[in-house]
Amino acid sequence: MLSKIEEYLQKERGRHLEELKEFVGIPSISSSTAHRPDMKRAAEWLAAAMRKAGLEHVEVMQTDGHPVVYGDWLHAPGKPTALVYGHYDVQPPDPVDQWETPPFEPVIRDNKLYGRGATDDKAQLYVHVKTAEAFLQAGGGLPVNLKFCIEGEEEIGSPHLQPFLEAHREKMRADLIAISDGPMHSEDQPSICCGLRGMCALELTVRGAKTDLHSGLYGGGVANPATALVQLLSTMHDREGRVTVAGFYDKVHELPDAEKESLGRLTFDEDRLSRELGVPGLFGEKGYSFLERTSVRPTLEINGIYGGYQGEDIKTIIPSSATAKISCRLVDDQDPEEIMRRIQEHIAAHRPEGVTVEIKPMHGGKPYVISPGHPYIRAAESAYREGFGKPPVFIRSGGSIPIVQVFSGLLDAPVIMMDLGLPDENLHAPNEHFHLENFDRGVRTLCRFWQEISRQGFRQNRMCGDNGLPS
Amino acid sequence: MLSKIEEYLQKERGRHLEELKEFVGIPSISSSTAHRPDMKRAAEWLAAAMRKAGLEHVEVMQTDGHPVVYGDWLHAPGKPTALVYGHYDVQPPDPVDQWETPPFEPVIRDNKLYGRGATDDKAQLYVHVKTAEAFLQAGGGLPVNLKFCIEGEEEIGSPHLQPFLEAHREKMRADLIAISDGPMHSEDQPSICCGLRGMCALELTVRGAKTDLHSGLYGGGVANPATALVQLLSTMHDREGRVTVAGFYDKVHELPDAEKESLGRLTFDEDRLSRELGVPGLFGEKGYSFLERTSVRPTLEINGIYGGYQGEDIKTIIPSSATAKISCRLVDDQDPEEIMRRIQEHIAAHRPEGVTVEIKPMHGGKPYVISPGHPYIRAAESAYREGFGKPPVFIRSGGSIPIVQVFSGLLDAPVIMMDLGLPDENLHAPNEHFHLENFDRGVRTLCRFWQEISRQGFRQNRMCGDNGLPS
Question: Which of A83, A206, A389, B345 has the most CB within a 10 Å radius?
Fold first, then answer.
């Protein structure tokens, strides 16, 4: 049966990519109120694509924020039910002037599709839609029951997904959740992600006088909010990259020896990465490799800092305020709320004189880990081996998909991360793109994944209570 | 004679203020290339106003930057020649949304003129033009020889004034330089400024990767330029507001006891100032009063800081760079070039790992001090006493007019600062304004100042070599 399906995919490839360009061309920036109409347009476009694929009950479902696009095909009685999660919203394109071609005018160069949202997450979720289409249009049906739940708020922390899932728990119920929203290890090495970092984000504002002040007349006489912010932020790391917020590492475990060895075996050229990134060298917490630091160790990063004059030349003022946007990546048992509390305590303990400090907690999400021995992970392993012609390695991703924990908690089902992106595809940065050979390998892998899940009937396994999550 | 002159000023007051509003309405922002045509317009407007006043040889003189407006009246043989310096350029109006009325649509409210550049320096220099006009139109001539040299680059550090003065040294030669470009002590207390802080400014940029990076995939693995900048800047002050750059205070002297006592006698309500500014308390170097910290002590201020994401919500990136704009206010024998070198050495000694650091030195200027016993200062004292009905106090200003040192050095003449502004007039900030009662007191004071200078014939005194400058 797979040959007919692959023939179909081959024949329709040109149309599929044209459609994908249309999708990437919609500036569905969830964080921008100005792009609300584009968000609606993207949701409706996706619903139409799902209907065209042959999915049923397709619906743009309202939430208190941006809508969720739902669709299903439930005609495989006795077989497991899988729910595909993805997101049609994208990051803002700034700095726009660093894009080689406009972020929302997608183009294909060197078999790569360029455009904001190309890899994060439009092309990756689109591979799922096209896999379903191939089974339904050319294969007579899917080997499993399939549901799609594609949201529009992932890039702003999915504020309405949890209430949505709670309200529609029965409709969304599944034996597993499949997500393709991240990168594989490298172009030559497919990987299965068995862990994600959690997140805890906040905005920290230091305020001084009501207005900017002349630095000649007031300089030396009042606290400078930019200096106070700088001093406060400087207490949060030591000079070797370790976070110095008290209690920050309390719930972080050392990596099990087997996983540490497996990570260590991955070929990884640190010098080459430095050159590619344009940095004088890699840097971070002493005693851990780059791969460890970016996947199994937590971080506290300044994502943005601003206050005072930013124009040409100099403006001799004392800024009235200065702000930092901060987000932490969390691992193991670090809890976003507890880390937020720790940071608040740290700030209280280091509060600078002569200014006021305002903390605005933002979205958070718990870390997630699944055992490489879980049966669905083994099915994915076999599917990747065939789809990519190479056995995948097991890694943990440094990124966060906070809703992974929400899904596994609310639906009591394991989340299988079927990443199809690559790490150098500039997600969240200018010139984001997606390698189109992974579009082809992706549909092949997913075809086999659904067949494997269907064939082995893991559904019963899950009923025994082993969902593969660590205690 | 003064009665006829004052009658003229009274009669023409309405017209004079209307003209001043026109002048303040021109957005002559020297730091902005977009406002180049407005700079030209402001210079031409001023030249026309000088001609109308009766000044001769009025000329818009080209430089390699914005032009200088010159005019003179040289028909007082045997009398001293004074050169009036001022600037027709203004600071950028940002943040524009904090202005109650648009910055370049001047209005008068409560006898105050609101608009960018009102007090810094358009109204103050305009008082000089109107004083000359009154003498020339109603008094039959000026009691001294008078030259005007009004530049358009003060707010960007006067990069072309020194070469201009060198090229036109003979034309600009004078026995004294008069400048009104600062604030008096307070509304009830006129003052004469006998010192200015110098300046040393730079832009400090920390660079990491070529583009912003995803903080999940790279976070922990590379240095964050914002964090590196923060750590570097945090080494420049201790927690009590003292600058910790090695050698920074080497050429700073303790204030002579007499001046310290005089400063201490000035009534100054620190709590009231805190409330007015909206800060929880004043703050600065331990062991010095607010007035000392803002006039006779040096500073290092962050005027602006920026890097990474500044929009709504959060964007989970590691910024590719982060920048701080820094300026120091210098006192006594601190030399801008030496301080720049000290800062560069400090940065080299604290250079963070994993990033590159770029220092862009910007404009500087030496501090300036003149003795309260100088004969021209005594003439100014007497003029203020009559113009304001109260004896002035001697202070030092915390601000910088780098060209003061240039003038006193190049023209070998003392600079007399005849400040007519007030400290709470929001210069360099939103809602800048000028108290119009000081327009009236200002012309009265200047009328008497020129008469006093003329009457006492200080010209000869200066020829004896005593120019009142400290050694």
Answer: A206
